[in-house]
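Q: My labmate handed me this sequence with no annotations at all. I'd like to see what the chain might look like in three dimensions before we decide whether it's worth expressing. Could you predict it?
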Amino acid sequence: MRADVVVIGGGPAGLAAAIGAAKEDKELNILILERDHELGGILNQCIHNGFGLHTFNEELTGPEYAARFENQLKDYNIDYLLDTMVLDIAQNKVTAVNSANGVFSVECGAIVLCMGCRERPRGALNIPGLRPAGVFTAGTAQRLVNIEGYMPGKEVVILGSGDIGLIMARRMTLEGAKVKAVCELMPYSGGLKRNIVQCLDDFDIPLLLSHTVIDIKGNERVTSVVIAEVDEHSKPKKGTEQEISCDTLLLSCGLLPENELSRAADVKINPATNGPVVNESFETSIPGVFACGNVLHVHDLVDYVSEESARAGKSAARYVKSGQKPDVNAIQIKAEKGVRYTVPSTVRINELEDDLIIRFRSTGVFKDSYIEVTIDGQQKIRRRKQIITPGEMEQVILKREDLNQDVNEITVAITEG
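A: Here is what I predict for the chain of 417 residues:
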């Protein structure tokens, strides 16, 4: 089998990347490989609205947003294989398996990694207690309620204040359950401010910051959980324990990019994001292999995933047409004080056509602070923000005319006001 561009994953990133490649060159043969039985990825179970404000200038539900992109596949004659698991990637070959073809290989000119992310399970959280029924990740509960039509439980405690957990607090309440508390280990929420307001405050659901679950009780089914306040080292404080009766515990404790394929192919991984290190074209350390969406770094908004992935698909199409570009004059983008990481990590000035968008997350909560960008020590951007939190991705845009071949280093930092 042969394709010019192979896109691994048919979720929001994969759909946008495939369409981005097709828009760049309609003559290219583009193939999407998706392990699920339908396209759309996580959007299919996100029946709440709030999607598409940036991309389509209107509010859509997750399935509606996915459908907009799926319809475009027909316009560009983009092929896709469902129920297909990718086993291995190399620079110019993808090995996969499905029930129709068995194990097969696809020779290709470029690969775009769009595998998305997964939730951190209970086993990774080291919560003491037995293993009763009633413990779910928030995403699993979302699928049960929105797609399968099952209620996970009636009295709920949620550990973690990621966006999925916040949204499920509202969803479970609307379906008749009682959400008793949302506990967050950190002293700040991991979700968007709007979700805290719309999903917790509007329904009088308490958010307990600097709290965690230290025990799960119950034999066959969860009967209660014990929570406690934690200190600055995230250790439970003695004397702060309280037991909350419930039959369900939902875990919303972070997302992990699905990079097993990337690691097996020796793609360089950024330890801060657990995603590939990429340049301005979203090209990884392996020429012709690109990455975008939540497999690269976890996003707040699917609109940003689509925007980023379209650019990655466009870059993949250009790679197929023109081949590998020399990695000369690659400028490092440094994450300094208060910045966990930047995407991209490097930029080749001669490959830049438009302004450079740099996205990043902070290391903590900063109030009345400044986002500063310097080029070779000279300040180019200093933008004041009342509050910066790790739960919300930030971005800065450097003008193309500010970047020339003599630049050696770009630095992004957060400074106190």
